[in-house]
Amino acid sequence: MKKFTGVPVSKGIAIGKAFLFLDADFPEISRFHIESGQIDEEWARFLAAVDEAKEDVKSLRGLQKSVVDEGDDILNAHLLMLEDVEFHERIKKRLERNLQNIESAVWDVGHEFYQKLTTSPAPYLRERAMDITDITRQILNILLDIKKRSLAGLTEDVIVVTRELPPSEAVAMNKRHVKALVMDAGSQTSHTAILAKAFEIPAVFGLSTITKEAAQGDTLIVDGDTGAVIIKPTAKKIEKYHGIIAKASEKKDEQNALRDLPAETMDGRRVILNANIEFPEEVEQALRYGAEGIGLYRSEFLFLNAGHAEEEEQFRAYAYVLKAMEGKPVTVRTVDVGGDKILPNFRTVEEKNPLLGLRAIRFSLAHPELFKVQLRAILRASVFGVVKIMFPMISGLAELEAALSMLEDAKKECRKKGQAFSSHIEVGSMIEIPAAAVIADILAEKSEFFSLGTNDLVQYSLAIDRNNEQVGYLSQPFHPAVIRLIKRTIDEAHSAGIKAAMCGELAGDPKSTTVLLGLGLDEFSMSASQIPLVKQIVRKANVEKCRALAKKILVCKTVKDVEMMMKEEGGQS
Ligand code: PEP
Ligand code: MG
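# magnesium ion complex -> structure
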């Protein structure tokens, strides 16, 4: 039994078998000499691996046939390469002459072929370089018994163990069979973490070496509450965790009983608890947990699979959410692509620093036609409920004004076409760039609400990439600088007579609830499953005590001081 601790990013406990998903990586191989008596055995392993790889390609070809022809060409090329006589002969020669183990021989020949193809003057041959890399990896994965399957095709319950899963893969995986997700990389606020929460899949990230420690099929315990991951647990440990699972389910029942009660402190301060969603279907879950509205609909997820979404498709999605919420407000955030959420059709320039690049509102303003399509779709859907529009990553007044002017253009276009839309739609700014918090007074003049995006606010104010586990320890929402930026935003909102909301992960962190109440936050938006727990804390809190706590926290000099203060005083708030 071995225990590791990472960053707990999605609650819940799972016990199951490890599924190593290392597709994109080239497997690490060992290099050693074999005896001449082992040549035949190693060669037979190679031939068997080639046969298995061919079968895999054929079944993929079957799956793909109806979808794209181009994919078929690639798969046919893979089949030919797997049978290539020269490829086979060179590997055999290395086995016989150098007495290399088969994995290292395959690796070396694959590399030789790659070098030759990639430097070829013929474009066709250069293109084949990627294919030889693919088939070499495929053979090595089989030889090393690293299962290479798509997560979309999972047919049995597993715990996915991977280095880093991009959001697009997380969206595509067969959620029914993913019982937990553990990653070497990632942090609390990486988008894959947010998706894991939305799917209610327990997850622990930032484990650094878990892909090296766990083997295919190992039994794992994943504790998404504490961040513990246990490989090959003892029977006693498993029994202990079954007990914890049973207790957690009792606690959940207790919290769910609060579903229809208001989020009101003991001394009568009423706040709003909303849900964040990424997909329209999540509204059912949001309502089940008692959300009073959708505080953040990350609309970009509509685009991520196909790279685009037509106006009608968007209109249907927004209308669906609005109708399902039956008059409860729905805040649609206009697309926030770029950063780690890349639209395949719009990767025009390779960005060195995508998180500082053409992301969010910058992307929308750079693609006015796409932006207006989205705005028109939201406007048209507005007749089905109460919609609010929110612009992500506003950094200054000019940007906000440009976005508002696009909205006016979209309204004109709708009017021209005789398309109805609601007469008043609130429009707000996300405050997630430190500059925006600093000039919150200026932005408040043109915003009807603020929503604090603390995931990015922390990333940009502390200069830490939210997906990079190496600096994950610095991702501290309780850093005095972040707390001051939050306070400033809330105060400026109130001075301008508008509401201050928060939709970053901090809003759903039960440790922060009393402090945020004390700072005067009006609306909290979070993963739906967090709502009952946060509501429980709000209902036990006293807002005067929360204010006193916030006051003390605002003079703390370090994160440690803040955390200690919250521990000491938090319980009494
Ligand atoms: C945030 O940055 O806090 C936020 C809510 O937006 P996202 O996580 O989608 O960047
Ligand atoms: Mg953000």
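# post-check
Residues 39-64 form the longest helix (26 residues).
The longest strand covers residues 13-21.
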